[in-house]
Amino acid sequence: MNEYLLFDALLATGVFWLAWQTLFAASLFRGVISFMVFGLLISLVWIRLQAPDIALAEAAIGAGVTGALLLSALGRLEDTDSPSFRALPWRSSAFWSGGLVLLLMMIWLAWVSWELPAPGLAAEVEAELDRAGATHPVTAVLLNLRGFDTLLEVAVMLSAVIFIWSLGEAVVPEAPKAHLPGLPALATLLHPIFLLVAIYLLWQGAHAPGGAFPAGAVLGAGGILTLLAGGVHWMQQEDHQRLLRLLLVAGLALFLLLALGGLAATGVFYQLPVAWAGALILLVEVGTALSIALMLMAFYLYGEPSS
Amino acid sequence: MMVIYALLAAALVGLALLGLFTAKHLIRRLLAINVLGSAVFLLLVVIARQAEDLDPVPHAMVLTGIVVSVSTTAVALALILHAADARRRRQPQKQGGADE
């Protein structure tokens, strides 16, 4: 038990130090790299808190995709904005009063998270599990019991894509393959592994940690790597735009169809018929994973392709 | 063990707020918002962990939250990039005007 406590203390110290580096390191590049490592260490924290689903998603999205987005943005900003950091005015009274309020808030938060009654919904979810179509509780909650949240989340992602694309033309990712001749070969080699891992996670989601979110994140990360290597020309081509948009909407459309189908079949919005729940969840998971992967790649373009 | 992570989450909230209010560069502020998000997720899961059985509902919420936070990060970055682009395009005109 004692070794675990030591490990937790070390991990917490490491996470805190990386967060400090992220926010206060002198160079912005160092901050972004620290943030990516922060994401990886935080996923270890999720494992310690027995939340492997979150760990998978955090490692792929928090560290991988967010890091790639930040780094590519940083590369494009470099010539105009030099990394600037305003030193803390240690002696000003504003700093001290603000700091005091923050300190009080931190103490209050720690106390609240410790004292708050935590009855938990584990028993309720357990009771519904054999009617939900998935034996893994987190998947059951995400895609059946609280499916409406997930539907809205896919809608949030889609509106983010629409927002970004409405800002203007895509900043065509400057393929670094000229500097790194090995990159396209590496992307080609790694792509089957990304596909395999994504399909495995997707299939496993019904009964173990995994599911549409980690699968979509892994697929999207692989897609961004291929995009970097200049291997995804079709996203920029005129005649593929209709297909691209159709695929982007597919996840949300499937969700909505399912919700409306539930309304027609059982009279309740988003109520899955028990007999088909398993198959329907798998169908929605495949659609959602594909949509999430494509939307992550669409974020990376920072604008509408070929407009 | 839970005490350590509750304290970590509270400390991260404070640190992220400090960074958010003192940083000058927009990307640094975005990083602060992301760290703040992670701290809130940590608080949620720590609270969920204190129930007798493992409560899957906060886990699902955090999964949703991670995807939403990457969406907001992407939108903010796109805004920052397009703003910088617009500034860059405006600047040569200003210099041209000064030459005349």
TrEMBL record, chain A:
Membrane topology per record: Multi-pass membrane protein
Domain of life: Bacteria
Stretches assigned to the MrpA C-terminal/MbhD domain: 15-78
Residues covered by the Na+/H+ antiporter MnhB subunit-related protein domain: 186-297
GO CC annotations on file: plasma membrane
Membrane-spanning segments: 6-25, 32-49, 55-74, 94-114, 151-171, 183-203, 215-234, 246-270, 276-302
InterPro entries from the UniProt entry: CPA3_antiporter_subunitB, MnhB, MrpA_C/MbhD
Cell compartments where the protein resides: Cell membrane
Keyword check for Transmembrane: yes
Keyword annotations from UniProtKB, A to Z: Cell membrane, Membrane, Transmembrane, Transmembrane helix
Keyword Lipid metabolism: no
Chief site of localization: membrane
Family per record: Belongs to the CPA3 antiporters (TC 2.A.63) subunit B family.
This protein's name: Multisubunit sodium/proton antiporter, MrpB subunit (TC 2.A.63.1)
TrEMBL record, chain B:
Origin superkingdom: Bacteria
Subcellular location per the Swiss-Prot or TrEMBL entry: Cell membrane
Membrane topology: Multi-pass membrane protein
Keywords, in A-Z order: Cell membrane, Membrane, Transmembrane, Transmembrane helix
Keyword flag Transmembrane: yes
Similarity-based family: Belongs to the CPA3 antiporters (TC 2.A.63) subunit C family.
PANTHER family per the UniProt record, alphabetical: ANTIPORTER SUBUNIT MNHC2-RELATED (PTHR34583)
UniProt protein name: Multisubunit sodium/proton antiporter, MrpC subunit (TC 2.A.63.1)
